[in-house]
Amino acid sequence: MLYPDIAQTLIACRKHDLDVRQRLIDEGDLFGGYNPEMEKVHLENARRLQEIIAEIGWPTQEQVGEEASQAAWLIVQHAISLPAFMKSCLALMKEHEKAGTIDPVNVAFLSDRIAMFENRPQSYGTQFVDDDQGQLVPYALDASIDQVNQRRQQLGLNTIEERLTELTAQMRVEQEKQRTAAERQVAQNEYDTWRRKVGWLST
Asked: Are residue 11 and residue 85 in the same domain, yes or no?
């Protein structure tokens, strides 16, 4: 490991993110929109990662160790208020993917997440949303489920169906309660307004 201090910083940033998330879940304040406290943590972590990237480039496992490199990915995955930053990180990660120095699963997750925010179909089925009936379903796919499952298998991921079962089992009471169609539409409108504000959508 070349940068142990940076590694510790990244791991601490991830821990802070997850600790705040768990507290907000326990308090019932995480769901129903993007919690301002959670967004603040995500932005702070992203700005710190930006500084790290400016110093050493993308923090690979060789530079900071596996745990810290995974932490860097989580920070980017959660930096949803910074579209340009997420896209620039994806470009860096794809370069490392070609060289075999980064986990391709992380590239798949980030690529799908960006596609979802931009209203484009995803390629690996890593992103899930509520349908019109409030049921959890995979976000739009760019191919058949069988084809996407083949891509997932190549990355060592389970099938979309298996992942959906896992996620459904993990859902908490706060997420499971059924919303009316009107409530779902209000939530969708708020989501679209937020995406325009931060730059995911231009219209």
From this structure: yes
